User: What shape does this take?
Amino acid sequence: MDKLGFDAVIFDMDGVITKTAQVHARAWKLVFDEYLRLRSNRDKHEPFREFTYEKDYLTFVDGKPRLRGIESFLKSRDIVLPRGSENDAFEAETVYGIGNRKNVKFLEVLKNEGVKVYDSTIELIKNLKSAGIRVGVVSSSKNCEFILKSAKALDIFETRVDGVVSNELGLEGKPEGDIFVKAASNLNTTAARSVVVEDAVSGVQAGRNGGFGLVVGVARSNNVAELNANGADVVVKDLADIDIEWIKKWFAKNPLPLFEAWQDEEKINAFFSPFQKDNKGVFINPSYLSPLRSVISGKKKTVFFLDYDGTLTPIVQRPELARLSEEMKAVVKKIAAKFTTAIVSGRMRADVEKLVGLDGLIYAGSHGFDIAGRNLSMIEPRAQATVPLIAEITVRLKADLGKIPGVIIEEKKFSAAAHYRLVEDLAALDKIKKAAEDIVAGNDKLRLMAGKKVYEILPAIDWNKGEAVRWIMKALDMDWEDTAVIYIGDDATDEDAFSVVRGRGAAILVACEPKISAANFQLSGPDEVKKFFEMLLAGNN
Assistant: This one.
């Protein structure tokens, strides 16, 4: 891990940088109250109920793209309107019409009041830039550029992904993580090495869904608990409460040993005390043990996501030697009989399905590109399109590295892997790494991932084990709030899933030594994984 541990911080605009959230809320109230009165006057059976900040704006509108926010609020009042078209007059009784009228009201209020910024946010941004950390801004608003320019804050950001850019690129709005992931990409980094700063529930959900290394909620509306409940790692009431050193500390932390934390909650408090010692305005997500307790109590539906190599089996010299022990197979069978269970592996789906040999499970192979089981079936179409290219580079890897003693080239349909665990000639390691890097260099359709004694070349698409977890959750119609989600894995490829699950589920790293990770907890090896399963089964009887 490098000195800082993170590369970029991506800020939401309204309510985080600029004091325009309340302006938006007032404009929405003017527009919705006007429309609701119109309906009430027209139909005496539809009594007028005003649009409120707490119950309506924060719940249905805040942070969402304009049209989605309108439709979400109207649905809450059982009102269905045609979407209309972008050029609808603001008097039109359509979703676009209401949106256009809101924009007029918003700009009127803004013109009268001007744009003010949060000084503590600007100070943090300046400090980040001075330390070489890259900064970006995101917003669902199509007025983002105008607002930042009015606030004299446009030039401090290296990238801007707003409503205009999202529309041009076809990006999904919050709570999907697209706009944040795109901003991280524009800053030449990944979600895992970036921070999201958001004040809206849909925004912290987007940061969590995008798999970001740290999601900071800013509670401008006394909504600490709500932001934490929706995936914020930490909530502050003002960004003066954290600084670069605090963020560095977060990215350098190790997971808690699971059995120690399970037996003694004081250890959890001690673990988080460095993040809160001098500042009581920092609210760490309190949910770390709750998913596990929900399994024991049976209060929530439960889903397990399990890696295979290094998690259910020990790491071995050759991939084909990783066999599930009869004891582990028996306990996994019991887990799958009681709880929804998915195996999420870097191996090809057919291979891991054969190795596990249990029916009734969901199998996600090739890092989640290929999913089947429990009446589910999906092959990621963008990955499917790269199969011929992967076949070509597999041939090239064999030609470049196949003669090095100990190198194993694994053909995986959606990826190609060069294993070097058996390589004894240390001088050959640089050649192996360079060969993998040379294949990826200059080819924007490929990316390189380093795992445990392996270099793997994959399609350069925004899909990983974390996205596979989200896909399975949606396909099973499982809501994060109503489900105890537990992900257990051991490799760098599992970190994306840890970042998606953490904060609203239990992310568990399997490693024999302390290790920096996005996971909440740590188990020392497959034996402790088995012990954990047995503990859960005993408590669930």
